[in-house]
Design goal:
15 helices; Gyrase A, domain 2; alpha+beta; six-stranded antiparallel sheet; 28 strands; 3 domains
Length: 678
């Protein structure tokens, strides 16, 4: 661990153990370790030239005036780089109060930033809300932040909420096509006057635990480096080296053409939006030069180009009006993204037509290479589909974030689902067949007494035997073959489950040394899986068939009695085995996926017992298991799980947009490079 990261971790542990009485003093001392010249850190209030004040705050980071710190109860607003409003316990009311106090600090009037050619600068005050602990889940704090944001100008939003020992809520920047997120700094005054960045601003929650102070400090020093270029502050990426990077994306925002930040429309979230296929731009011989696509963006649109052609050279075909605020963001390896332009999908189509007519390039539609096809006649309101398909796929996405790497999981799991659905359909058909036959017998429609003889006009034995055999084959195929294959993919060999007792005992002993909970679970599984497999093997190896239905006189009518499997009526056997099998698929798969998840992610059960056939759970959600992050409510879905803060900061500085990488001298005080958007 590098010394900077170690210092931040030690400071975080110390801060987490203080009480409210000396929180400000300890917080100032901790932050002061990382805010070097020309900064000072103290408790106090800020005041602008018009006499408006904000505070007092537990911590204000400000540029020290010559001759001393001056009056900390009237720190000039022009010198204030950041404020931290701190308390002992966070709850909704405290969040609202601190939110308003931070907004007040951000409203203080400041002189314009000096023009520094080629160096990003800002005069914006960074606002942080800090609490030692929280009386409510982080998710509830995030939801309240969203509500407050909807009522407040974006320039007044707090930039981070910190709960020591638990986690942080802050904003991250993400370009279309990127998977990772970078720390997002508030835009400088006037930064959006001449362009609109094609960037998603995402509210994220991070369960960083004891590293919450480190996460806060990384954002703070990145901002301090831009607030006063040349300041002696550490490399923010060094602090982040030991900070867990997993995050939950809570909500997304975009800038519109007027520079106003707006929520991303729900229909454009990744779980709902299917973008049109990109258009191919080829030479006269059919060689691919680039692909280009249009992305709707609030009141405008963004162009994304992959390949060797220069995007700006193609954008001239849009016409002069669209190019007034044009610019390009370049992302590795070969992606070019336009600034947000005042164009629509119709304008994009017209641009492609002009390229085709006025150049020697050929524009073609990309041939689709995927098919969207109906999978089943039920959706996520069904517990079966929600738990075994939607829920498991959500967990899979955490372990396999890159789609190309999912095939090794998806192929065996698809076979499991196919076998399970066949077994489930067969179980339903068998139950319907039996219920109808028993009803007809009981009503006398197909059964009658003739003397001492019982006459049955319809036989159901042949069809029942066929259905039971189909169920056993499908169920054992899912259990014995498919789950073994999936277990092997996830690093757990369960082949011993289907061997003789001695082999089973040896396999369980090996599992128990590494995972005693799984070992005990597999012992319990053996109590029902063995009778299931033996029933199926009896058909193949012993010529067993389902016994015939028996009939008896009861009162003045006739009663049909279901034949037995494993000493219980076949209907009870099928219902029990299907339920156990579904539970095993979900629980074993979830456990194996959990073993491969980042350490800060766990899985919780929303309810201990749910009928996979019909009924939803008590909370109204058909999901049974969900992944969640330590310190965050278990109702937080991880479908939007991303890695965050992995060494880049996105800052919208005065005069131009800058992507300040982990090696930027303005951010790190180091001797590395800086890349701008264009």
């Amino acid at each position: 661990m590098n010394p900077i990261a170690k210092a931040a971790e030690d400071a975080g542990r110390k801060i987490a153990g203080v009480n409210e009485a000396n929180l400000g003093e300890q917080l100032n001392a901790a932050v002061g370790q990382f805010a070097g010249w020309p900064y000072k850190v103290a408790s106090g209030s800020g005041v602008d030239r018009a006499g408006a004040t904000a505070g007092p705050f537990a911590s204000i980071v400000f540029i020290s005036q010559q001759g001393g710190a001056g009056d900390v109860n009237a720190i000039p607003a022009d010198t204030v780089a950041a404020v931290i409003d701190a308390c002992e316990t966070a709850d909704i009311e405290m969040l609202r109060t601190s939110y308003a106090r931070v907004a007040q600090a951000k409203r203080l009037k400041k002189a314009p930033a000096p023009r520094t050619e080629g160096v990003p600068t800002t005069t914006v005050t960074l606002g942080i809300i800090f609490a030692l602990r929280s009386a409510v889940p982080m998710e509830e704090l995030a939801e309240e932040l969203q509500r407050l944001n909807a009522e407040t100008p974006a320039r007044e939003w707090p930039d981070m909420v910190v709960v020591a020992n638990t986690g942080t809520i802050n904003y991250a920047g993400q370009f279309p096509g990127d998977r990772e997120l970078g720390l997002f700094l508030p835009p400088a005054e006037g930064a959006l006057a001449n362009y609109t960045p094609p960037m998603y601003v995402v509210m994220i929650m991070k369960p960083v635990g004891i590293h919450a102070f480190g996460q806060m400090t990384a954002l703070l020093v990145a901002h301090l480096a831009i607030f006063s270029p040349g300041a002696k502050v550490p490399n923010f990426s060094h602090i982040l080296e030991v900070v867990p990077q997993t995050a939950v994306m809570v909500s997304g925002y975009q800038y519109n053409l007027r520079g106003e930040i707006q929520p991303v429309p729900r229909q454009f979230y990744s779980d709902r939006y299917f973008p049109p296929l990109p258009m191919r731009i080829e030479d006269q011989k059919g060689n691919l030069l680039s692909t280009i696509e249009f992305l709707p963006w609030q009141d405008g649109g963004v162009l994304l180009l992959k390949g060797k052609l220069p995007l700006y050279g193609l954008m001239v075909f849009l016409g002069g009006e669209a190019l007034k605020k044009a610019g390009i963001v370049r992302r590795p390896p070969d992606l070019q993204i336009s600034y947000v332009l005042p164009i629509t999908a119709t304008n994009f189509g017209e641009m492609l037509t002009r390229i085709q007519r006025q150049s020697n390039m050929v524009v073609r539609r990309t041939e689709p290479n995927w098919i969207v096809q109906k999978y089943a006649d039920e959706g996520s309101t069904s517990p079966f589909m929600a738990r075994l398909f939607v829920g498991v796929m959500d967990l899979r996405d955490v372990v396999y974030p890159d789609p190309p790497n999912r095939d090794t999981f998806d192929k065996p799991y698809e076979f499991i689902m196919s076998s399970l659905m066949n077994a489930r359909a067969t179980a339903k058909e068998t139950a319907t067949l039996w219920d109808e036959h028993a009803r007809k017998v009981g009503s006398g429609a197909i059964a009658r007494l003739h003397g001492k003889a019982i006459h049955i006009d319809e036989s159901v034995d042949k069809e029942l035997r066929k259905q039971v055999e189909s169920f056993l084959n499908a169920a054992v195929r899912a259990l014995k073959q498919s789950m073994q294959d999936l277990g092997n993919e996830l690093g757990i060999n369960i082949g011993f489950m289907f061997k003789q007792q001695a082999t089973f005992d040896a396999g369980i002993a090996a599992i128990e040394r590494q995972d005693p909970l799984l070992a005990e679970y597999l012992r319990q599984t053996r109590t029902w899986s063995e009778p299931l497999v033996e029933s199926r093997n009896a058909i193949e190896h012993k010529g067993w068939t389902l016994p015939r239905v028996t009939y008896s006189q009861k009162g003045g009518g006739i009663l049909a009695s279901a034949p037995d499997i494993s000493d219980q009526p076949f209907t009870t056997f099928i219902d029990f085995m299907l339920d156990r099998l579904c539970c095993f698929v979900e629980e074993f798969t979830a456990h194996c996926l959990q073993r491969r998840m980042p350490r800060e992610i766990t899985i919780t059960e929303l309810r201990s017992r749910i009928d996979y056939r019909s009924c939803p759970n008590a909370s109204g959600s058909p999901l049974g298991l969900e992944a969640w992050l330590g310190g965050i409510s278990p109702t937080t879905r991880l479908g939007l799980n991303r890695r965050s803060g992995s060494g880049q900061v996105f800052g919208l500085a005065r005069g131009f947009a800058s992507e300040i990488g982990a090696h930027s001298p303005q951010t790190c005080g180091g001797d590395q490079e800086q890349r701008a958007f264009q």
